[in-house]
Specification:
By secondary structure, this protein is of the alpha/beta class. The chain contains four helices and five strands.
């Protein structure tokens, strides 16, 4: 579905939204130019360096591999998710007075 679909899907989402572009460096570059904060791309070293440079300009982050994922249990998922979010707050995340986690938007 591509970068525009993902951008539309995660707009205003306060949670980290990484787009896994696999070996498609062009999609990763498009995602960074579209303002996505996190992109995963398993590409050769030269392309990775170029993506890192682009990420520095756009304020995004490029990762070579997917981070560990969270498997939620059938019971108590809310508590497990809250603990996970507290432990894995991304840069720019802020804690609300009620203890919840959000993000600062820079429009």
């Amino acid at each position: 579905m591509g970068v525009p679909w993902w951008v539309a899907l995660v707009t205003d989402c306060p949670l980290p939204a990484l787009l896994d572009c696999g070996q498609a460096a062009g999609h990763a570059a498009a995602a960074l130019r579209a303002g996505l904060g996190g992109v995963i791309a398993h590409v050769p070293a030269a392309q990775h360096r170029a993506l890192v440079s682009l990420a520095q300009v756009t304020g995004g982050h490029i990762m070579a591999q997917r981070p560990a994922s969270l498997d939620l249990p059938l019971r108590g998922a809310g508590h497990v998710l809250e603990q996970y979010l507290r432990a894995h707050a991304m840069p720019g995340a802020v804690r609300h007075h009620d203890g919840g986690i959000g993000s600062i938007r820079h429009d």
